[in-house]
Amino acid sequence: MLIGKSEIRARIPHAGAMCVLDTVLSWDDKRIACTAGSHRAADNPLRRAGRLHAICGVEYAAQAMALHGGLAGGAQTQPRAGYLASLRELVCRVAYLDAIDGDLLVEAERLLAEGSRVIYRFALSGKDGELMSGRAAVVLEKP
Question: What is the domain range of residue 58?
Fold first, then answer.
């Protein structure tokens, strides 16, 4: 199930270059897999001193999680806003994402959804393997 940039922008609050995901390759009730090429863009708003530090991969994962919530929520017109509450087991295997050739694969798996709390496991990969992984807790606004 391929979803493009315009539908992604319609489902998450990030506008312009801040929407870092390009496509959704697949998703179901628990998982999402997306691609991103924005890590190579010179105008990426997350760059500092011309570089895109690996920790910025958390934003890529957070957008995948938000998009998953919007897609898994079905016909709901306005998805609930979410706030990153904590990161656990974060491992960065590279220093910079802008040095990665080719697109990134951004994957997230919902481990727990309980009321206004959601926990995801996430990973970013390139053609040579995993670049970053971890778990994130998200707190959703009350409906």
Answer: 5-140
Number of CB atoms found within 10 A of residue 60's CB: 24
Number of compact structural domains in the chain: 1
Q: Is the pLDDT of residue 27 over 80?
A: yes
* Domain CATH number, residue 39: 3.10.129.10
Specify whether the CB–CB gap between 122 and 135 falls below 8 A. Answer: yes
Q: What confidence tens digit (pLDDT) does each residue in 33-82 have?
A: 999 999 999 999 999 999 999 999 999 999 999 999 989 876 554 566 78
3-state secondary structure the chain: CCECHHHHHHHCCCCHHHCCCCEEEEECCCEEEEEECHHHCCCCCCCECCECEHHHHHHHHHHHHHHHHHHHCCCCCCCCCEEEEEEEEEEECCCECCCCCCCEEEEEEEEEEECCEEEEEEEEEECCEEEEEEEEEEEECCC
